[in-house]
Design a protein that fits this description.
Arc Repressor Mutant, subunit A, 10 helices, 0% strand, elongated
């Protein structure tokens, strides 16, 4: 038994909704990463997945909803940057990224010019990363400090892994990690109470 794709000339596969959804998601991650939101087409994604384009609508509703799901998956794995974890976070930020992290950065850069895509990515970052980080920070202005930490994290990753800054790529990782940890700690640690006047 085959799904609807068999009757329209697409790859024949046994009826398996979960496998079909995964094939679509995998293809969508590839196409959105390569082409960005505006350059990605539903037919291209379906073709790469080997399914009828109508199945994207059936399982995900629309290109926008499919992009939202891809972004949620891409942003699911993130660093904690608290005083207790900043030494590890600094080392990770100054190391070569995993394939998934590199793809997530390219997905973000290539889709950010689309206003709707930018909104989807911002919402995911704020809901799944920034808010979780803020909940771990002691002291005042935790949400604002979490946003600054996310910005520092993103900036370091962009400069090192996309623009390939020579100092960040070729410099002594141990020394750089000491400086980066100090910067992260300066934001993450609860600020001291202001001196009374």
């Amino acid at each position: 038994m085959t799904d609807d794709s068999a009757s329209t000339g697409y790859m024949s596969r046994k009826r398996d909704a979960a496998a079909t959804k995964q094939a679509i998601l995998h293809a969508a991650r590839t196409v959105f990463t390569q082409s960005g939101y505006d350059g990605a087409g539903v037919r291209e994604i379906a073709g790469l997945a080997g399914v009828d384009p109508r199945l994207i609508g059936r399982y995900f509703g629309s290109k926008e909803q499919l992009f939202t799901r891809v972004v949620e998956d891409a942003y699911a794995d993130h660093l904690m940057m608290t005083p207790e974890t900043n030494a590890e976070a600094a080392r990770a930020l100054l190391s070569d990224p995993t394939a998934a992290h590199a793809a997530g950065m390219l997905l973000t850069l290539r889709s950010a010019s689309n206003e709707r895509a930018a909104t989807i990515m911002r919402d995911s970052l704020e809901r799944n990363f920034q808010r979780v980080l803020a909940d771990e920070l002691a002291g005042p202005d935790a949400a604002a400090r979490a946003a600054l930490l996310v910005a520092v994290c993103t900036g370091v990753q962009f400069m090192r892994n996309v623009l390939r800054s020579s100092e960040l790529v070729n410099g002594d990782a141990g020394t750089l990690a000491v400086y980066l940890r100090a910067a992260l700690d300066a934001i993450a640690a609860a600020p001291s109470a202001p001196a009374a006047e």
